[in-house]
User: What shape does this take?
Amino acid sequence: MAALSIDDTLRQRPAVHMLCSGVFIQEHVWVTEDLVVVPLKALGFNAQAAYLAHYTTSVAGVPVDEGGLESLRQQGKDSLPVAVFCRLCAVDASPEELERLAATDLDTARQIIGWSSSNEVTPFGMLTLTSSQGYFRVLPPRENQRLRLGFGNTGVAFHTQIASLFQTALRDERFAFALSLHHDALRETNQLFRAARFFNCLECLAAKLKAEAGGSRKAVKMLLGFQDGATIEVAIAGQRYRYDPIEIAGRIRDKLWHGVPFKAEDLIVETRSVFRLIQDHPETLADNLQVHSELELARWVNGVSKGLRE
Assistant: This one.
């Protein structure tokens, strides 16, 4: 496969192409015989320069001449370098199935190239080629408009909360680190890794409780006030799952971080269905841990977190 020209390789079908920004490579890189990363023309700062110029004139009333705008464009012409991660597929299928089959390889390659360049590599577009057709779509950044913590992201309560978070982060290094862990988890695309990262955030806030509780998972439950149990029940597509999200997320983190085996036999019978949940709907676990992380950060700022215990 590597004997083909890069242009011929990129035209192979079926294949999944993921376009990413932030990729600093100077030549194509064969990750495997079926996966190649190819540098493309940089995005540059055209859109950002135009937006900044519009903001400058509309808000500050400062004129921006075309020469100045062109200078901005030229300064940023090599910024936001782009590469395509092309995963060739051995089977033909629907675009959704091809993307699913290629997803792990593409995501792993993206993280490795990010390591090599010390940059966050951000996907922004996908082209999927079946044997007969092509499908493309834009990948918007991970974002939502969820209203958080009950105060609606507006008004005096919201402004006060944000100011308090900022001041606490300046004076409290542990809180600042936990906030950083929370932010990292928000950017994570792998849902099981995301759950483990939110658990790490909660574990950081529960540090002073570990000795008394006798372990990380028990400390996090104590932090959240779940010493008597944190079992929840959810129903998805007619299937009911009963499990302890703190226990499961902690075990996933231990498996990933410490290499501790996590087997169905480790759980009581009524909670073993969680392995099906982790496989089919891992975002359910991650979303639950995210809410706990958000609320505990707010409790810390308000001085009512059990993790502040002296």
Summary: The chain has a mean pLDDT of 88. The radius of gyration is 24 Å.
